């Protein structure tokens, strides 16, 4: 029998958990404020909705989030320079590049993503983080948000804390 999952309830639970973790850090480091930069190229309406939600949720749990909105005529080199500047900014702890890029110029999005410092790669999309995940280095990996969110939904619905993986030949423990 199918089980209906209340995504809003799961989201609220995850936000509460993250807010608690952030409070623990701030108790140990009272001057710490988590900083998030969201980089948007162009003005896609669907991206605007996603970004608005990200900014709202970040604010709700005490993360200082900023939108870095760039023109749809930006060049590859200028976009990379923006990422490099955010990497060097100590007030920015995490960087999200909103995809897809809405640009008149040809931009290699994979190259842009790989410019993000792997320790600031909130979405877990850099080749370095993806490689760590593939090698099973889970203690040093930032998990990609969408698949991780799906796993959290399954965890919530089933109560399972570990998920099996299938490598094409056999089931592997996770």
UniProtKB/TrEMBL annotation:
SUPFAM superfamilies named in the record: Aminoacid dehydrogenase-like, N-terminal domain
Residues of the signal peptide: none
Pfam families: THF_DHG_CYH
Transmembrane segments: none
Keyword list, A-Z: Hydrolase, Multifunctional enzyme, NADP, One-carbon metabolism, Oxidoreductase
Gene Ontology cellular component annotations, sorted alphabetically: cytosol
Pathway linked to the protein: One-carbon metabolism; tetrahydrofolate interconversion
Reactions the enzyme catalyzes: (6R)-5,10-methenyltetrahydrofolate + H2O = (6R)-10-formyltetrahydrofolate + H(+)
One GO process term, biological-process aspect: tetrahydrofolate interconversion
One GO MF term: methenyltetrahydrofolate cyclohydrolase activity
Top EC class of this enzyme: hydrolase
EC number(s) from the headed UniProt entry: 3.5.4.9
Keyword Oxidoreductase: yes
Recorded superkingdom: Eukaryota
Limits of the Tetrahydrofolate dehydrogenase/cyclohydrolase catalytic domain: 5-123
Subunit structure: Homodimer.
Protein name: methenyltetrahydrofolate cyclohydrolase
Native species: Toxocara canis (Canine roundworm)
